Amino acid sequence: MSKFKDIQNKNSYSYKAIMWGTEKGIITGSGVIFAPNNTCTREQIVTMLWRLAGKPAPKSESSKFKDVQDKSRYSYNAILWASEKGITTGANGEFKPGKTCTRAEIVTFIYRYKNTVK
User: Fold this and answer.
1) Residues 6+ positions from 8 with CB-CB distance below 8 Å
2) I want to staple 95 with a disulfide (CB 3.0 to 4.6 A). Which of 5, 29, 49, 90 is the partner?
3) 79: which residues sit within 8 A by CB, 6+ positions away?
4) Distance (Å, rounded) from C-alpha 66 to C-alpha 54?
5) pLDDT per residue over 57-76, tens digit each?
6) Same structural domain for residues 77 and 112?
7) Residue 66 and residue 46 in one domain
8) Environment class of residue 88 by beta-carbon count within 10 Å: exposed (0-12), middle (13-18) or buried (19+)?
9) Which tens digits make up the pLDDT trace of 101-118?
């Protein structure tokens, strides 16, 4: 049974994936909802990949991105790790954590993850 109020249909195409992601700690949702129809931000995508990789500690403690300086931000270590691994490169010194991810960006993050993270 799902902990998310909006994920109860076991016949949904995404039910098993959401349950797997929750059990593995890759996704956490927003409280008691998952919001399956919401779009993802850049920080959410790299955070999911970071969690999938086992939450490895980044080598650096400081961000190269002007817009990622708050060390208490939930995605801070994930963004540092993704940058170090070449999963994300940012643009003009920024990562744009709250920017919505395009399908092309998401598949690029996944491709880079698959080809760089061992």
Assistant:
1) 1, 2
2) 90
3) 43, 46, 47, 63, 65, 68, 88, 95, 97
4) 26
5) 999 999 999 999 999 999 99
6) yes
7) yes
8) buried
9) 999 999 999 999 999 986
